[in-house]
Amino acid sequence: MKGKKNAKAVSMLEDITIKIGGEAGSGVAIIGLAIARCLKDAGMHVFSENDYPSLIRGGHNTVSVRGSTQKIHSLCGKVNMLICLNKQTAVLHKDELEKGASVIFESNHQGESVNFAQDEKRKDVNYVPVPLLEFAQKEGNPIFTNSVAVGAALALLEADFEIAKKEMEKAFSRKGAEIVQKNISAAKAGYEFISKNFSKARLSIPIRKKLPSTILLNGNDAICLGALRAGCKFVAEYPMSPSSSVLHFMAAHEREFELVVKHTEDEICAVNMLCGAAFAGARCITATSGGGFSLMAEAIGMAGMAEQPIVIVEVQRAGPSTGLPTYTDQSDLQFALHISHGEFPRLMFCPGDVEECFYGMVDVLNWAEKLQMPAIVLSDKYLGEHLCTTPRFDMKKAKVQRGGRAGDKEMANAKNFKRYSLTKSGISEQCFPGQQNGMHVTSSYEHDETGFSCEEGKMRTAMMQKRAKKLEAMDREIIKPKIYGKKDAEFLIAAWGSTKGPVLEAQKLLEKEGISTKFMHIAWVSPFDSKTVLEELKKSKMHLICEGNSQGQMRALIMEKTGFYIKNALLRYDGRPFEADEIAREIRRLHK
Amino acid sequence: MTSSCFDSPHKPQWCPGCGNYSILLALKDALLQSKCKPEETVIVSGIGCSSKMPHFVKTYAFESLHGRSLPVASAIKLANNSLRVIAVSGDGDGYGIGMGHLVHAMRRNFDINYIVTDNQVYGLTTGQTSPTSPKGFKTKSTPFGVIEIPVNPMALAIASGATYAARGFAGDIKHLSSLIAGGLAHKGFSLIDVLQPCVTFNQLGTYQYYQKNCYKLEGTGHNPQDKVAAFTRSQEWGEKKIPIGLFYTEERPTYEDEIPHIQKKPLVKHGISNVNISKLLDELE
């Protein structure tokens, strides 16, 4: 290893955080992704999250990439390397820097050398000016600045240049050999410049073998992969941040996976289309965020009444109304749980991480079909867009299970088929247009067993009970809350959805200090496993719930379902995800 | 008209004299004429008096939400393009709350036949103004008369890219049935606007009024492939000046015809038991 020869090199960093900042459109996301992939190639576990305003140009964007030799679940700790695509970045984030951190910045902005005033600078970090633009222009285009920065960063990490080269080949291979070569040259210029001029600012990381069977992806992509694997054939969606990448992913793979992907005129059309597609027999999903989800309310009720399996992915952002379009929130829990008028059963799943996004989608699509009801997957911007290294998905654990569908042969001999027959489980067989002898009306109106509109009181009661009963057939194992940490710890942390990662990291911090905790993560909220949740709560003496809303919506749900009131709540609703530090701090305070 | 495979066990319950009775007869007749099979036909409706129609025709059917018949119908067609898909709803449903979907469905040119039973009034909610009510029309919601001008369904269809635009009259079942059959035979989106007397809430658009003032485009020398002529005809309305018949038609590929992978086999017939995503996972390693 090169770094070892260098007497001035900082000791090995087993855990490193690199932050990249600049204006929207300046390449922050591209550099972030490249560095995340390079760290992964260097054998590290990686977590990366972004922060950006709802703008296409301008504003201030950042990406933070954490690499670690241990499995990680969120960001944690201070910034070791800051890559500044503008001066503002260095100033804005100076207090986040670890002692001895390196700050790479553009040394020559529009022909003028960049200088920092005394109060804009930290004394205990290394400032590393690099003529990013100049090197890029040598390759013929300012766009290569990104690759210069990646090269410079890798040199500071004392990583082999091969890693940067491979990344450039991977990232630009679709654009042709010339573009690949120019990016490699640009990265090389950045790499060599650092190698020659900055031995003091090095932050060497342990370079190991690439982790076997490990993938790097975000929650939205994992949701798409899960949907594809689960046999989703129909997608109707209207773009809305931060869910739009689901539409982009599925549209890009429309031909390859023989899907129908429709960008509709609005979310009302999208969700009504799902009802039609499900009625015709296709597995289907849509994705949206709070605003579009609000528009879908009426048709979600229709899917409940007409017993159609449709899956809606809601990637939450901070509301109400337009709110903070590109910032995260967990404030739609109670809304989603009650969306649409009247009472009807629904499935609702809130994945905690990228892995749960994938396997959860398979479960959700399977069970929506088996139970013939709408299903809501409640994710959020943080989970949807953060990248995390994850064990490659296991196809043996992700299998299509079908249910409640009448076969063609069976229908050929069917007599008096009743689409909504009152069965013991509440689940009645669904047949599809094209099948013989199954003609019926499926309706948004209350109906009798044949589907014919019916407003008679007894039948109405029977149908309400039939639909409600279906939830009982759900697999009880799947809906169990998951327990992490010390099973018999006196201190229990409860959280749901994407708050999982920061809580797991907080547990690690506390464990080092000798504070053992138990963490109960709730992913399934409908059906809700009241029994297990209550049992777990009762086993501990102290409790804290962490959630990303101002009202403690999961706390209220737990109270409603179990009668147990969790006294302590750490609530965050500034549009930012939880930090492990703040959770650990709160637990320390309560633990005293 | 005689009994057929499309007879449902249920008897319609519209007001005596309602135009929907004749529209139902015309629809069933057109289905027979067009040799449709009940199990391969889907009728989608919205909400309103006429949206109860699917209950009285024996096919697969989806009685959806107010204004949403076309999104549901479009998806059924996309999921299974071997089906015959018909949508039926009223003027409030199609030209009011569902107007956005209508314009987009027409430009997409799904092979769907959309029948709008146009009685110029909201019947099921007891008689309020509708998007096709004439200016000055007095209803419960417009006691001093409607201020705005009505929607012109034929002009809208021609402008929005419908490839078959026709107007029928509930008082002429045979003519109406031929227009619906024409729509069924046409490959692409057909809008069939049907002048439908509402005997309870519309004292202006009566059988007598339409009988007196409608004339048939057939036999006038009107060329339905002439878009400009069709648009000119769509502007006619009033005393002896209400054209019925086929205003406009053109050939254009349907939306679903342009999706290559559903040409051999409808989407719902594709296997889903072991979808291989390993290539996508490889890229993420």
Would you kindly provide a written description of the structure presented here, covering whatever features stand out?
The complex is a heterodimer of chains A (592) and B (285). Helix content of chain A is 37%, strand content 21%. Chain A has 592 residues and is α/β, with parallel strands linked by helices. In chain A, the strands form four sheets. An eight-stranded mixed beta sheet of chain A has the order 8-5-4-1-3-2-16-9. In chain A, strands 11-10-12-13-15-14-21 form a seven-stranded mixed beta sheet, sandwiched between helices. Chain A is globular, with a radius of gyration of 26 Å. By secondary structure, chain B is of the alpha/beta class. In chain B, 30% of the residues lie in helices and 18% in strands. Chain B is built from nine helices and ten strands. In chain B, the strands form two sheets. In chain B, strands 2-1-3-4-8-7-10-9 form an eight-stranded mixed beta sheet, with helices on both faces.
Q: Characteristics of this structure?
A:
heterodimer, A: 592 residues, alpha/beta, Pyruvate-ferredoxin Oxidoreductase, domain 3, Rossmann fold, eight-stranded mixed beta sheet, seven-stranded mixed beta sheet, 23 strands, 21% strand, globular, B: 285 residues, two-stranded antiparallel sheet, 9 helices, 10 strands
